[in-house]
Please model this.
Amino acid sequence: MTATTAPSFVAPRPSNAKPSIVWALRDTGAMIGRNLTVIRRVPQLLVFSLIQPMIFVLLFRYVFGGAIRVPGIRYVDYLMPGIFTQTVAFGAINTAVGLAEDRGKGLLERLRSLPMARAAVLGGRTLADTARNVLIIALMTAIGALVGFRIHNGVPAFLLGLLVLLLFGFALSWVFALIGLSVPNGESAQAAAFPLLAPLVFASNSFVDPASMPTWLAWWARNQPVSATVNAVRASAAGGPLATKVLIAVAWSVGVIVVLAPLAVRKYRKA
Amino acid sequence: MTTTAIVAENLQKRFGAVKAVQGISFAVPTGTVLGLLGANGAGKTTVVRMLTTVLKPDAGAGVVNGFDVVREAQAVRSSIGLAGQYAAVDENLTGRENIVLVGRLNHLSRADASQRAVHLLAQFGLTDAGDRPARTYSGGMRRRLDLAAALVTHPPVLFLDEPTTGLDPASRLDLWGVIEELVADGTTVLLTTQYLEEADRLADNIVVLDQGLVVAEGTPTELKARLGDTVIELEFADAASAAAAATVLDAQTEASTIVRVVMTDGPATLRDALNRLAAAGITAQHVALRQPTLDDVFLTLTTGAAA
Model:
């Protein structure tokens, strides 16, 4: 079934002339491209991942929204930044599922036997999922506009808010990279993710004002990274003092990255 | 270029309390095929993972293409191709994209990687399927694609971890042909397998592993010679006559109705055996001559070590 190797063929030799940082960036680029191909090949996956947030939009905008009191702001403008953050948070599971599947299928094994930069596997994964978030946030913003969400603070401020949100997604991707490398397959990654995300996403200021919660829960809901990110995105769209909220949110995300990225990298080296 | 492509020296690896590899040594001369033979859990894959820099040995050393697998891991990685037992292809990428990706991660230029992909797809009979996602491929096609990707830099040393496990017989023959062509081309191959037939056909030398230890090594011919001569198998109607025949022939019964006699004295052994049976009034139902197979060697060696 095979033709014999062409007699005069000289295989190209890999070149290692460039500095290693250039190779690391190129390898990371190759991995990002590989990870994003799935969006082009199986676009249904992206559509499915929007169904849950859309149900939440409909549920909170039209079913519960009328009964929820929030101070000094239309409920839809309060809600949508919460939904954006929720979508990005649950979307980070994608990082865990992707890595767990790559590991289960022996793909990580092959990558480890290649002369590529070690950082490119996790970097390519988390950055590809960040790129995916850009697409998802754009779609969710459009859906928000359809149900009455409006920006009151100018486009640049809102874009700054979305950058804060993307950084939060990137930070969570590192959390889920660690989880993905610690579980045997994609299903386990999904199962491990929900108990971790639920208290962060639901016991937060995403949907309701924490002032309506019992004191202990309100304290939690005011002092955790999802709420910090929601605060920044909300202020970026609705107006009001922004700088402090952005700083707090960025501090949370940077803190998560500083702690979790080295752990994930260590896990990858050992896994 | 060194004359020894792969050296394993007292390689050891334990996982928790399990000693997966307990001091394995062998050498593979450049341009030859080594068959690493053993049952599941014998330590074959662990040896391959250490020699391909995927796993660090606890002790011992590995040298591939002249480079140390721990200290010069990056140089080793540039010298090898690895095709594993899972056919590690990305199902969402096309066959072509899979090969190009591995080429790019091997630091080939985009043009070189694409050109290699065209060549390898043709060589492995995948040209028509080259632009389809790999998830549409059959098991045999995936293995071929996996092997093609491993060959993207035309590496001098190739590691094949159970390349045909789970394949149907036709796909297996197919892949054997491909591997033989590579070897004819000068590639050094380390191949792990559970199939003695595969090792017999492809390997110049065989190392038999059992429970993380080398229990035998040699050429296929040498290993078969360890079992000695051709065996006469006599089958009887029932266990009683087989037992009686075994006494007469001073031999062992096997599977209760079969008696095996080693042909130590050539054809005279057969004549002598039949004469003795006739004198004792026992009639064999069936007589067969059997050459020892690698299976016999393998079972003898591994069950012996386990006992």
